[in-house]
Amino acid sequence: MKSLRSLLSYLFFRFRRILFLSTDRFGKITAGAVRYAAGEYLYHIQVSSEDEMGYLADTLNYMAEEIQKSDDYQRQFIANVSHDFRSPLTSIKGYLESDAGRYNSRDKEEKYLERLIMETDRLSKAYAVDAELE
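Given the sequence above, the corresponding structure tokens read:
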């Protein structure tokens, strides 16, 4: 009877430990998934096991890294497109503010008008590229 009680006690505590470890790992994975859903892609799920839970944690960590890379590329792309739009607009504004129409010389006026046309064409091309990407 004593050995049966010892065996049951051992099995109970062993089962409780296994359940606790699984619950703890599952809790870490769940917490990581919640943080990823909130956009915290730099968070790393700390589960180091060689079973399905470890594989799931590694997969979620990899997914978060790839999403972070994609977000970084997107931010860089938007910055580049914004710059491509701002450059011609700044040039156009500068030529208009420089009183291009007040020059007595027809050559200078034509030069400024050609430059304005060139910058608006450049802006149109940048817009066309942006429209194609949508």
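The chain is about 80% helix and 0% strand. Try to locate this feature in the token string yourself.
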